[in-house]
Design goal:
By secondary structure, the chain is α/β, with parallel strands linked by helices. The protein is built from 7 helices and 5 strands. The protein has 2 domains: about 1-125, Rossmann fold (3-Layer(aba) Sandwich), CATH 3.40.50; about 135-200, Orthogonal Bundle (Arc Repressor Mutant, subunit A). About 60% of the residues lie in helices and about 10% in strands. A 5-stranded parallel β-sheet has the order 2-1-3-4-5, with helices on one face.
Length: about 200
């Protein structure tokens, strides 16, 4: 995976949000030499659409603008790298709140930039994979809960044992060629519809 990350750095869309001073220009230049597609912006924009990585200068005055930028991300936020000139509790708080995957210290130097970018991208990818795994587990858990509810409905309505109810759901799913979780949800929905119709009359 690490080799693939290094390969993928070339062509990454990086937005450098930094004052257009010598340091900001140098930072953008280093990233271009790595092979990234670099856009620059200043002051902090309200959106960073399309960026894979955002390299963002952080100071005390930038907190509210950074918060606005973070809220603008739709879906998955990009990899975030903070550029800081000094450390104190308020700066560290901003860095944490922006969800930084790496921190670059001023003055920015060419040495270490590739490492910071690689580590940040690796952490971002690991978080995305962990989020996908969690969603998969949550969907599986919901599916199991729905199967249990559907079995309970059939046991009550048809006087079946738990095993008989399970086999009934499984057979119905196979005949319809749908996952058993989907069939269980259909049974739950049909039962709720029937109950609501009975209440209405």
């Amino acid at each position: 995976m690490s080799i693939q990350i290094l390969r993928d750095l070339r062509g990454l869309r990086v937005q450098v949000i930094h004052a257009p001073d010598s340091e900001g220009l140098e930072l953008a230049g280093h990233l271009r030499r790595i092979g990234c597609q670099v856009d620059t912006a200043w002051p902090i924009p309200e959106h960073a659409d399309g960026a894979d990585v955002v390299v963002l200068a952080v100071d005390h005055e930038s907190k509210s603008a950074i918060q606005r930028l973070r809220r603008s991300f739709e879906g998955i936020a990009p990899t975030m790298i903070a550029v800081v000139g000094y450390e104190d509790p308020s700066i560290l708080q901003i860095v944490l709140e922006m969800g930084a995957h790496a921190v670059i210290e001023r003055p920015v130097r060419p040495f270490g930039l590739l490492t910071h970018l690689t580590v940040a991208r690796s952490l971002w990818l690991e978080r995305q994979q962990a989020a996908k795994n969690l969603q998969k587990v949550e969907r599986k858990l919901v599916g199991i809960q729905n199967i249990q509810r559907a079995k309970s409905i059939l046991m009550t309505a048809q006087g079946l044992t738990e095993e008989e109810a399970h086999q009934t759901i499984r057979r119905k799913a196979m005949s319809k060629r749908v996952p058993i979780e989907e069939m269980a949800l259909a049974i739950i929905n049909a039962n709720e519809l029937l109950n609501s119709s009975q209440k209405a009359t």
